[in-house]
Each structure stands twice: as C-alpha cells, then as structure tokens.
Amino acid sequence: MSSSKSLKLVLLTSSQTSGGAAIACMRQARVLRQAGHQVTVLSPETWWPDGFLGRWMQRGYTLRKHLVYKLQQYLVWTPGAMFSVDPWPAGDPSRMQHHALKEADAVVLHWINHGFLGSSDLRALLNLGKPVLWHMHDQWAFTGGCHYSGACTAFENTCGTCPQLRRRGPGDRSRRQFTERQQWAAQAGDRLALVAPSEWLAGQAAKSGIVRGSGAWVRCIPNPFDPAVDGQGLQPRLVISEHSRPRLFFAAVNPSDSRKGWDLLMMALEYLGREGMVCDVEVAGKVTEPARSRVQALEMGGHRVTWLGLLGPKSMQEAYVRADVFVIPSLQENFPNTILESFAAGTPVVGFAAGGIASMIVEGQNGALAPAVDPWASEASKAMAAVNLASAILRVVQHPQGNLLRAMAYQSLEQVRPERVAKEYTDLIHAMLQNSSQSL
Predict the structure, then answer these.
(1) 1 part of a folded domain
(2) What is the extent of the structural domain holding 120?
(3) 358 and which of 10, 87, 98, 353 could share a cystine (Cβ 3.0–4.6 Å)?
(4) CB neighbours (10 Å) of residue 10?
C-alpha cells in the first residue's frame, strides 16, 4: 500500500481540552490533518445529544468521573499512587459502532481512563478488524492498572500483590486486570501497536508480560510540537536576562501531587538560600494549602514566590519566556509537553533523569539533569535528591554561555517537527495495513 495514500483515522480520548494527554492528542490530530489525512476525534461528548439533555449528560459524566476518582483515591490506592480500573458503570460496546470508527482505516487510542472506555469497549473495538494504535501517555496500557510502576517490575511477568493497592494479594485487582489485558493483547496480535513518545516508555512496554509474545508492535514516536502554533505566536527569547535574581518557573495542575516533586523543589530552594542564592519563582497551577504553607518559610529566607494560578496557553508561554530556567522536578514522567513548551521559549530545563525526561534534556546543551530518585525513597534519599536538583539549577544559572544554551534549547524542537512526526505515524499505519492485507 502506497505510503502517500490519504488515511481515515479516528482518535479516541477521554477529553479534548483537559490535561497533557488531551493537548498531545489534539496536536497529533492537527498535524495528521495537515499531512492530508481525514482525522476524527471522538470523546465522551461525541455520544451526547445536543441541547439541554446533552449538557445534563455532560454534567453527570463529569460528576461521576470526579466521584469515582475520589473514591478510588481513598478506597483503592495507597497514598501517592495512581491506579485506574474499568469505568463504573461499565462501558458501552455499542459505541464502537460509530460510523467514523466503522469507516476508519485505523484507530488511535489516547487517554481513555476516567470512565471513558473499559475492557468491553476495547474488545468491541478489536471486532472491527482494524489496526489499533495505543499512543501511551504513561505505563497504564501494559500494567495491571498502575500509571507509573516506580521501582516495581512485576508487570514484566504478571501483576499481583500490588504495592499501590490498599487491598492486595496474589489474586488482587492488578492481577485480574493484567490477565484480562494480556488476553486482549493476544487477541489483537499484530493489529495492535503500542506507540510511546519516549524511548524509556517504549522499553518498558517491550518488557511487559502483556506485550511480550503477543505479536503487538512497539514503536517510539514523539508527541509533535509546532512552535509557530503551539508557541502561541511568541518569539523565543534567545538572550539571557539582566535579572539581578534568577527567575525560575514551575508548572503543575496540582503542585501537591507527590509525583510532581513540589516538596523536592522547595527543599532545593531552601538549600540554594543557605548557599546565598535567592530566586524569583513563578508557579502555575492550583494554589493548594499544603503547597502554600511550604512557601512561607522560603519567602522568609529571601526567595520571592508568585502564584499565577491555572493559566491559559498564551499566558503559560509568556511565563516560559520570562523564565531563566524551567524546573520540572517530577519523579515519574513520560514525555512532558511542558518541556517542549519551554524549549519553544528558548528556556533551558532542569529536572530529574526520570522516565522520558532523561532523553529530552541533554546536560549542558538545553538544560541540566539530576539523578533520578524513586518516588518511595527514604527521606534521607530525597534530601540528597533535592541537593542534586539545586546543583543542576546552579549549572544552568551559572552557565558560561547562557545565550548559546537558550539557542540550543530552541533547536531541541527539531526532533518533534510536525511533518516528521506525521510521517512516522503514517508509515507505521501503512505498514500495519500492508501486514494485515498480506495475512488475509
């Protein structure tokens, strides 16, 4: 099959607007359309009627989603964990008979949690007989339910006695979901491709007992980023600022999420303060009481912290441009959009060498890396990690060629050019279609 043939594609996502996965999904839809393909994005609201009834269904779905999330948080997961189960109530496989899905050449799954698609939906999707590409935003597709496994490697064989579940044992929820997903992957065989934005995630997927031996494809294709569009029309700042104090930027929807490393950033700033360096810090995200209380002590030590709240795309990009350094102290990440957004502003990035971050930041070229730290590490280990993070911030702030560092940060976007990403996706889909036709 010619790789120039236009394709009909359907992207499935639990949201078109909220969260990093939604942003990545809509950017992918845009670049595939620009490449000449017919792309339809389906999300929960696709199946809701117009008007008053549809608005009430949306409110009901949102309420159920948040209620189930909170119930799982307090009844299912251990503190600091994130573990997703099948939606409640159960999925509706009849939705897979949507005309766009029936006419599609291939289907791309993005984030399908939060009550959107469950096991019955995925089985119905396979029955359409089309290639299914799962664009992964974390490890959930190939584990028994956790989104990030941390130091646990049970998913490489079979899950069970999951450390992220409150009620655990050999036959616990993680084992049941793992077995079910293993059967689904075996049924899909080479009609399934697991697509990872980072080499780290692709490597993790290839090790999984769900994937290994199933015949599924595993590929690494990054999320696309177009600085002309996703950079909100702002020019990168390619010269260092004349600020008397370094200006740092941190962004997370919920800074209190332990995986985002807010506490480690606070400890790193405390260390810098003791060493005589005080900073201006801008924070984008929800202003939570636990996050705010830690800041008061920092401000007494001379740092200035400005809470920006939840920002729109342009305001976010303006914050990146203002910053001397974007700090992403996450303990576990796949391929953060925020790093790409920072590079688009010409702003170098500091973070831990965790997950996909390790392949995005190149020491001394577009930022600096601190050694990764396990999310469940001891307090002493986290204290050392904070010192390492502070050291990485210093290496960027005191870099002898700051202008060059900013220019190279901007040039890092070459790997995620839209046309390059669209071609990699198109080539993979055509290869799967050709493989499918040869096996008939």
Answers:
(1) no
(2) 8-224+417-438
(3) 353
(4) 23
